[in-house]
Amino acid sequence: MNPPGGSASLLSDRQVDIIATRLAERLSAPDGAKSPVSAGNSEPRLAPHGAPREALGEGVFATVDDAVEAAGIAFRQLDELSLEQRKLIIASIRESMLEHAEQLACHAQRETGLGRAEHKFIKNKLVARKTSGIEALTPHAVTGDNGLTLTEYAPYGVIGSITPTTNPTSTIICNTIAMVSAGNSVVFNVHPNARQCSMANVRLLHQAIMRAGGPANLVTAIAEPTIESAQALMTHDGIRLLAVTGGSGVVRQAMTSGKRAICAGPGNPPVVVDATANLDHAARGIIAGASFDNNIVCTDEKEVIAVETIIDELLRNMSRHGAYVLNEGELHRVERAIFSEQRGPRRRAVVEKDLIGKNANEILARAGISCSGDPPLLVARVPNDHPLVWTEQMMPVLPVTAVPDVDRGIELAKEAEHGFGHSAGMYSRDIDALSRMARTINTSIFTKNGPFYAGLGEGGEGHSSFTIASPTGEGLTGSVAFSRLRRCVLVDHFRIV
Ligand code: NAD
């Protein structure tokens, strides 16, 4: 890599080679696409899932082998560029993703049928602005009698990234910014149900990188992703690191793949409200957080545990702030609609897949309950052992359950979180209780007195990410998580005092 401030006017032999390679790629693909396989007329026009086949080019490849090979070349080309050039690439990505944030949000909502486009717009803008980039990769120096030791953040190489259907574009955006900032290239195997918006996203990223003078195919994707292609990526020799974002199945698969894996798994985030909390503030914050993108975000509040003495007042405040509070009969009807199978008290129920991420009024309609308007959230008081407390429902139906005191609340929150170590929070003005829960619950993100999306950087401080790696411990991933640490030791010299 050239030193920052190195010769800008003369091209090195290596850079001339890179330009020649790119020109050759373009010339061999008349439509501007580097087509690594023949996608000619003999190819079926429909993908296995019935949607039109994805055109190849602009980072989109037919096979895992082709994508990994192209990303490998791009990684080596990026490695030849200066840090200043890498900064220009990241700036171009952020600018393009902000420009297309709304378009990608609408596309993702339309294709997946999950969540709300206006919330996906917020998520895309958030990661475009606040994913940690090159600025986070500050080298570390130690000096002493024996000289100077320097530790720097280095890239891994080609990263294989598996992405979910719940935040398809925001995950692609944040992973790309963090991974490329650290000097890596990436191959995405996206969720098949979010294939088209994800491919559109990859093409825009490819274009933004090229506009900034970056290599072709720094960001690549498999055109027709499947579980099998995800598994092939996990064991591919050309992949140095995996980043997996999804449920328990894919996390388990990645952790047994034999490769280093950064795994962002499921959660069931509890929020405890104690007797000292500002209940008006708590009600507003919980409704805003739990209804965010119709509750499909892994960090969204999934169950409320409230101290008995204030639970009625909390529910009244939630109703006043627009939540639809279900009565007992309505709750039974909603349960029958949203669960395809209940497995008993304190057990996770099986949720009805086609209601995941739907608006509250659609869930009410399915349960046969008439409602005019568009409530953001359905709320129901339930016993502690109700399946809603124990299930990652991913729909705007929020259980509220009572406990005798705050310590029992913290205990129940710990149990309901299932040891995922993902996200949790509390509304309280008792600093001892806040500290006790933060320590006990031991999650990657703990939010005090605010909606849980504040923990993602939306209305809260700190960088953002939609790859929150709890099982493997990186927490909210950023450029540091996708870097290898390398040490260089100079013996006996370069200490200046
Ligand atoms: P999912 O697990 O169904 O799919 C995620 C990805 O993994 C998809 O690309 C899918 O094709 C792939 N996949 C699934 N099973 C696989 C297997 N056995 N082998 C290889 N690949 C496999 O999840 P989803 O429905 O897309 O997303 C929702 C889940 O993901 C929720 O549980 C949510 O909490 C979790 N999630 C976690 C985070 C986080 O940052 N921790 C972020 C988003 C979603």
Short description:
With 497 residues, this protein is an alpha/beta fold. It has 16 helices and 20 strands.
Can you walk me through this structure?
The chain is α/β, with parallel strands linked by helices and 497 residues long. It has 16 helices and 20 strands. The protein has a seven-stranded parallel sheet, with helices on both faces. The radius of gyration is 24 Å and the shape is globular. The N terminus is likely disordered. It binds nicotinamide-adenine-dinucleotide.
Query: What is the count of β-strands?
Result: 20
Mean pLDDT: 92
Q: Based on Cα principal axes, name the global outline.
A: globular
Q: What's the story with the biggest beta sheet?
A: 7 strands, parallel
Strand content: 15-25%
Query: Helical amount among residues, as a percent range?
Result: 25-40%
Distance between the termini: 30 Å
Radius of gyration: 24 Å
The largest beta-sheet arranges its strands as 11-14-15-10-9-16-17
What is the overall number of helices?
16
**SSE-based structural type:** alpha/beta
Bound molecules: nicotinamide-adenine-dinucleotide
Which stretches of 5+ consecutive residues score pLDDT under 50? 1-12, 14-19, 23-44
